[in-house]
Structures are given as structure tokens and as C-alpha cells.
Amino acid sequence: MAYTNSSMVAYTKLSSNHSGQRTHSIDRITPHCVVGQLSAESICSCFVSSSVQASCNYGIGTDGRVSLCVEEKNRSWCSSSNTNDQRAVTIECASDKAEPYGMNSTVYANLIKLCTDICRRNGKSKLLWFADKNKTLNYAPKSDEMVITVHRWFANKSCPGDWLYARLSDLAFKVTAALGSTTDTPSADTSVLYRVRKTWADSKSQKGAYKILANAKKCADENAGYSVFDESGKTIYASASGLSPYMVRVAIADLNIRRGPGTNYAKTGQFTGVGNFTIMEESAGQGASKWGRLKSGAGWISLDYCNRV
């Protein structure tokens, strides 16, 4: 097929870090967090040197401007997976430097527009998000479908960060709507509201009703004793038992964050740094007398290296 690039591009600085023309047609989009509030120009500059051994197709700067780093026809080196990068248009988005790697509203709005443009130019009328690695990677998209994948599925990384990960259902829905289509995938069902309450019967305790499950879970986690209910009243997520969130002080710069409560869980590749952090849940686990789950969603830390504030 004849590949094109987005007309949204405001700046171009092509990187030599790519594998030449794709060996698979485009049927995936992989958005990333660049871990820095960078401009469109700076995102491209990250991938100029051949020693970096990384690149992306597009960058979205903190002001929303779009840059082109690797032409869409070529496979970028972005998601730690040759197979994924052969099929995906990869997008680095300006973000905060720490979890949950938040992006401003302009970056997110232009991510929606760029994804819509990518889908339209590649003959796709639907963007799908399954929120499940195995389901996604084993799914054969129809000729008019594009699928969202994420970097964390292919490497021990948080990318694209929990801020964007929690919004991928919304991204898929808004892009599909902009393309003039509807989708029957569960991730885009915005008619469902997830309610956060102490009990289903206690409607007065309700903290909120959310279209995105991840946001409902976050609310429950922030309110001890609360759970997430579907519209039939079924409990689909319970917050950590009665523990009230509390703050700890970390005095070392290199305290590892792990994916679960124990040294038997993988490191996320991130460190807390020195500072104060809110603990939402405690758990026993290998390698420490007690582990704590960070409010940011980044993972778990050993409380042996923390002092309660």
C-alpha cells in the first residue's frame, strides 16, 4: 500500500533509527509517555543519535504540536517489540516525569486527533481497546479496525503511565466516534456507570459514578471501605481492607518500586526518589517486614526504608 504521513505535523526531524519499510500493514497504534514536558522539537532530538537505539513515528509536544521522527511507512524502534513496531504507529507524548505520567489536556486532545487521522488515512473506521494483553495480541483485526497496544506489555516499564492507561478506553471511543462508527467492544461501552459506594444499598454513601472502570477503582482505593459496583449492584472491585491512607517519608533516592508486595515481584524500573508518599494498602511479602502500595499506582515499596510522617 502507499503510506502517507499526517498533515498535523508541524515539525520534522527524521531519525535514522528505524528498520526501513514495514513488513506488516498498519493495524495498531501504540501511544507512549516521553517522561518529560518536552516540545515537539525536543522529542525528535531525543532520537537523533544512533547510539540511542530508539525512535518513534510521531511526537506530541507539551503545547500539542506534532512532530515527525520516523515516517509512517517505516518501522520505528519504540515498544521493545519488533512484531509490534512492524504493525504499529508509535506516538511519544509529552508527560510529567513521575507516575502517573500525567499529560495536559492539549496533548490528550491532539492525541485523539492524531489517532483519528492515522486511522482514517489507513482505511480504518474503528479504534479498539481491549485492556487485555493476551486478547489483544491474539486478536486478528478486521480490515477496518485498528487496535491499541502499550509498551508495558513488551518490557518491564510503566509506559504509557497510569494516567493515559486509564484513559485508553476513552481514547478508543472518541476516535471511533470521530470516524463516524460505533464499536461493540466492552471498552467503549460508555452507557455503563461504575458506582463507588460503601454498600450497594447505601446510595447516600456514593462517591461517584464513572464510565471508566480504572477511575472508579482509583476512587475506591482512595476511600477505605468503599467498593465498585456495576449497574446491577454486583461488587466488581473492593478497596483495601479498612486501612486509612497514610504518608511516609523516604530518605533514599534509589528505593525500588515493584509490581507487587515482595522481592519475588518484578521491579518496575522506577525509584521513589527522596520525598513523601501516600500508602494506600499494606501487605506482608518476601524481602521485607511489610510492603506498602503507593497511591500513584506506580507499585509497591518496602516500608522498612520509610518513616511514617
> Which residues sit in consecutive blocks of at least 5 with pLDDT less than 50?
183-190
Rg from Cα: 21 Å
- Shape verdict: globular
Number-wise, the strands total 20
Give the N-terminus to C-terminus distance in angstroms: 60 Å
Kindly report the name of the CATH homologous superfamily of the largest domain. Peptidoglycan recognition protein-like
| Percent range for β-strand residues | 25-35%
Going by CATH, the architecture of the largest domain would be 3-Layer(aba) Sandwich
The CATH topology of the largest domain turns out to be: Lysozyme-like
Domain module count? 3
Helical residue percent band: 10-25%
Strand order of the largest sheet: 1-5-4-7-3-9-8
Instruction: Please work out how many helical segments DSSP would assign.
Output: 7
Question: Key features?
Answer:
19% helix, seven-stranded mixed beta sheet, SH3 type barrels, 309 residues, globular, 3 domains, five-stranded antiparallel beta sheet, 20 strands, alpha/beta, Lysozyme-like
Describe the protein.
The protein has 309 residues and is α/β, with parallel strands linked by helices. It folds into three domains: 9-181, Lysozyme-like, CATH 3.40.80; 191-238, no CATH class; 246-308, SH3 type barrels. 19% of the residues lie in helices and 28% in strands. The chain has seven helices and 20 strands. The strands form five sheets. The protein has a seven-stranded mixed sheet. α3 (105-121) crosses α6 (168-178). It is globular, with a radius of gyration of 21 Å. Residues 183-190 have low confidence and may be disordered.
